[in-house]
Design a protein that fits this description.
About 25% of the residues lie in helices and about 20% in strands. With about 550 residues, the protein is an alpha/beta fold. Helix 7 crosses helix 8. Bound molecules: 1-deoxynojirimycin.
């Protein structure tokens, strides 16, 4: 019998702990809060929780700056709380995937504290140092969060590399001792019974800064294979690498079915489809045909040769219903259509907290409302380049990371039921109408649609088609309609929908036998003709 990896049929739910549920009134989400919401997640039907970092951290980048990999950030709780979460989730058949930040640590990590003491420090070479003059960085490499990637360290009179904030010094993967310490820590967590890891910006660990190489360095896959061999391969877990620099070719290495690297990766081609050459702050026109073609290429190329992660959202991205859908009149319909488009494909779907409610972007007007280090740095940098306040806020409201980080909207009480204190970031004012309590009570809500979608993916009748069926797109040049079938043996699943607020009549390749899921009450299908109203989407047996 063919052995199927459990994660091929799993649905992952991402929690950003700071914004999910506060249990002690300090305005910051915590692990006990997550435990109190496990029944909600169980009701939705997910199998895995990916937790954004919960390790001890000065929180310069909300936990992606780790100062102790063996401890829990004190405002999120204790190691006992973490163990209770693993246990309680396990009782509900849910595994916990931790976020592993191995490209950099915090500058407050003891390794770095020691390293900066001088050139003889045992940990000096755990980081990337270059000699130089305090006014002349080694080269032009820039940080993702703005400015030079080189920081002058007063204490030891040299530069260190940080591809992110200056409080996130890059670790040196050339150093075998550092790698060994890293593997030891990973195995320590695996022994606690976690379900796997999401590996933060893992495609940059092979960097060669002197040659201006950050992603896809020459030794990248060698490092990843060693990492996998020394840790992951001894456990039945799932791993997913965050790889902004991935393409369909290296994705086959990263997610090689032989298990030599990761289970799967996050690639971002669909996310960047409308970005300008200067990145996300300047976006071009949304080109739906281009977007569909990107998905189709990944679906076809990885079939049998790798494995896709399916996602629209995470804690770094604007809310999908605002970004690709309609967060006004057709919020509910478009949220469901977006889910249909994505979850019909081959791969492991990821739902980001609040996506299952159709949560939207937030509208900020003032810099004082911004919390994200990236947006704050960008505001300063682009202001100096002459952008107006209005232009800056429009860019941040469209693409900024705080959109994803506003508190989870649980109910219509103060602060959306997220906290009894003052939330660390503003709650989206639309929580009075968009919240979990209201959606649980409404059979036609976005929540219930996601629940049905997950159940359909896992049903005995269809799970093999979702997992292994071929992907056959049609109407690829159509500017409104997404349409594909998934085919396995005699079974054929149709996934079709309207991505815009127009009405369209389309011809189907085969007659519909049975509607399996739809986001309008009465689909209008007559023989081979289907009329799709604004954002109407469905799955059907052909
Ligand atoms: C990617 C993470 O998703 C993001 O939130 C973080 O700022 C950077 N990596 C740096 O760790």
């Amino acid at each position: 019998m063919k052995q199927t990896k459990w994660w091929k049929n799993a649905v992952v739910y991402q929690i950003y702990p700071r914004s999910f549920q506060d249990s002690n009134g300090d305005g910051i989400g915590d692990i006990s809060g997550i435990i109190s919401r496990l029944d909600y997640l169980s009701e939705l039907g997910i199998d895995v929780i990916w937790l954004s970092p919960v390790y001890e951290s000065p929180q310069d980048d909300n936990g992606y700056d780790i100062s102790d990999y063996y401890a829990i950030y004190h405002e999120f709780g204790t190691m006992e709380d973490m163990e209770a979460l693993i246990r309680e989730a396990g009782k509900r058949g849910i595994r916990i995937v931790m976020d592993l930040v191995a490209n950099h640590s915090s500058d407050e990590h003891p390794w770095f504290v020691e390293a900066r003491k001088g050139r003889d420090s045992k940990y000096r070479d755990y980081y990337i140092w270059r000699e130089g003059d305090r006014n002349q960085p080694p080269n032009e490499l820039t940080s993702v969060f703005g400015g030079s990637a080189w920081e002058w360290d007063e204490e030891s009179g040299a530069y260190y590399l940080h591809l992110y904030s200056r409080k996130q010094p890059d670790l040196n993967w050339e150093n075998a001792d550092m790698r060994r310490d890293m593997y030891q820590m990973i195995n320590w967590w695996l022994d606690k019974g976690i379900g796997g890891f999401r590996l933060d910006v893992i495609d940059t660990i092979g960097k060669v800064p002197d040659q201006m190489i950050t992603t896809n360095g020459p030794k990248l896959h060698e490092y990843i294979q060693e990492l996998s061999r020394e840790t992951f391969q001894h456990h039945d877990i799932m791993t997913v690498g965050e790889t902004w620099g991935a393409n369909v070719d290296n994705a086959k290495l990263y997610s090689n079915p032989d298990g030599s690297e990761f289970s799967m990766i996050f690639q971002f081609e669909h996310i960047c489809a409308n970005w300008s050459e200067d990145g996300k702050w300047k976006q071009g026109k949304k080109d739906f045909v281009k977007l569909k073609k990107i998905f189709s290429r990944w679906q076809k190329e990885l079939w049998g040769k790798g494995w896709n992660s399916l996602f629209w959202n995470n804690h770094d991205l604007p809310r999908v219903v605002s970004n690709f859908g309609d967060d006004g009149r057709y919020r509910v319909e478009s949220a469901k259509a977006l889910a249909t488009f994505l979850h019909g494909m081959q791969g492991t779907p990821y739902i980001y907290e609040g996506e299952e409610l159709g949560m939207t972007n937030i509208h900020l007007e003032d810099v004082s409302q911004i919390r994200d280090i990236e947006s704050l740095n960008m505001y300063e940098e682009y202001r100096q380049q002459g952008w107006s306040h209005e232009e800056l806020m429009a860019a941040i409201n469209g693409a900024g990371r705080d959109n994803a980080r506003t508190p989870m909207q649980w109910d219509d009480t103060d602060n959306a039921g997220f906290t009894t204190g003052t939330p660390w970031i503003e709650v989206n004012p639309n929580y009075r109408t968009i919240n979990a309590k209201a959606e649980l009570a409404d059979d036609n809500s976005v929540f219930h649609y996601y629940k049905k979608l997950i159940a359909l993916r896992k049903s005995d009748a269809w799970k093999d088609v979702f997992m292994d069926g071929t992907y056959v797109p049609f109407m690829e040049e159509d500017e409104d309609i997404f349409a594909y079938t998934r085919e396995l043996g005699a079974k054929r699943l149709l996934v079709i929908g309207n991505f815009h607020d127009v009405e369209r009549t389309v011809t189907l390749p085969y007659a519909v036998r049975k509607i399996l899921l739809s986001n309008y009450q009465t689909p209008q299908i007559n023989a081979l003709q289907a009329t799709l109203r604004p954002y109407e989407a469905l799955m059907a047996e052909l």
